[in-house]
Write a structure and sequence with these properties.
With 162 residues, the chain is of the alpha+beta class. The protein has 2 domains: 110 residues, no CATH class; 43 residues. The chain is built from 5 helices and 7 strands, in the order E-E-E-E-H-E-H-H-E-E-H-H. The strands form 2 sheets. It has a 5-stranded antiparallel sheet with strand order 2-1-7-6-5, with no helix packed on it. It binds zinc ion (2 copies).
Length: 162
């Protein structure tokens, strides 16, 4: 299992996969980062809670770049409108269907990533397990960090502005 996270002191992005230690120093600022690895993490390679901030809630989602997914559909929609304008109706529908098919395929083949509600640490290459919980807005509100710049990858960050 690989953990990607930001140093709580200097904010540099780090990743490590050694869960045998109880603390690891940040290579940039030397801050000792505590590692609360559970027996399940060490023995079964699963992330049942966050090893970095000890948050008991994590969620699983597709390891998918949201910006890429959105731009794929924007480009397909523009191309479709343009084709429709030139009376190429079937081609216009084909472009939209093609974009939907690519999206579906990506969703099927992409791996999962586990994310901590509180510190947004990301866990990859864990043992496949269907027991992981999906994203819940209520929990995201509960653990929403005070520092918004660190929550840039948190979907709840933009939901809050509604
Ligand atoms: Zn640091
Ligand atoms: Zn955490």
């Amino acid at each position: 299992m690989t953990i990607t996270f930001r140093c709580p002191k200097c904010g540099v992005e780090l990743s490590f996969d050694d869960l045998s230690q109880s603390s690891a120093p940040c290579p940039q600022c030397g801050h000792a980062i505590p590692v609360h690895a559970t027996a399940a993490m060490r023995d079964h390679n699963t992330a049942d809670r966050c090893a970095l901030c000890d948050c008991p809630h994590v969620y699983v989602q597709k390891d998918f770049n949201r910006a890429f997914g959105v731009s794929l559909f924007v480009i397909a929609a523009i191309a479709s409108c343009w084709l429709y304008f030139y009376n190429k109706v079937w081609q216009a529908f084909a472009v939209l269907l093609g974009a939907a098919a690519v999206d579906y395929l990506l969703y099927r083949i992409l791996p999962d990533v586990i994310i901590c509600y509180r510190c947004h640490s990301q866990y990859r290459d864990f043992a496949p397990d269907t027991g992981y919980a999906a994203f819940e807005l209520g929990l995201a509100e509960k653990y929403d960090p005070k520092d918004k710049s660190r929550g840039a990858e948190n979907p709840a960050a933009d939901w809050k502005q509604r």
